[in-house]
Amino acid sequence: DNGDDESTSTTTAPARSYQNLLKVPPNDWLTATLDGVWEEWDGTLLVDSRKKNSQTQDKEAAAADDDSLPSQSATTAIDWGATHWKVTFQQLTIGIFGFPLFRQAFPPETS
């Protein structure tokens, strides 16, 4: 790693698309592209759908671990979407010399 890697993120408002692109010089011979869609975040903690725990238990555990997270009552008074957003990832593509080498789709609702 020579520190010359270039990473850019692009978001569009009307389509709410999100793309994070990593290019490795010289000539961007290797690329990694992460595509998704974004939405304003309402302050609700995300739930790992792979777990069987209830949303309430996850929120309580997260709040106990991180005092900087808002309480449930605070989330209704704050417009989290004004400064925070959530990305639902759709796919990751690895390319070499401009050609897609590997493409992996994410399961639905992967944030």
Structure commentary:
It is a single chain. The chain has 111 residues and is α+β, with helices and mostly antiparallel strands. 15% of the residues lie in helices and 40% in strands. The protein has two helices and five strands. It has a five-stranded antiparallel β-sheet, with no helix packed on it. The radius of gyration is 18 Å and the shape is globular. The two termini are 28 Å apart. The model is unreliable at 54-58 (pLDDT under 50).
Return residue spans where pLDDT drops below 50 for at least 5 consecutive residues: 54-58
Q: Strand order within the widest sheet?
A: 1-2-3-4-5
Work out the number of β strands. Answer: 5
Spatial shape: globular
Rg for CA atoms: 18 Å
Largest sheet: 5 strands, antiparallel
- Tell me the distance between the termini: 28 Å
Q: Helicity, in percent?
A: 10-25%
Kindly estimate the percentage of residues that lie in beta strands according to DSSP: 35-45%
The SSE string, one letter per element, is EEEHHEE
Structural class: alpha+beta
Query: What count of helical segments does DSSP give?
Result: 2
Overall pLDDT: 77
Short summary:
By secondary structure, the chain is an alpha+beta fold. 15% of the residues lie in helices and 40% in strands.
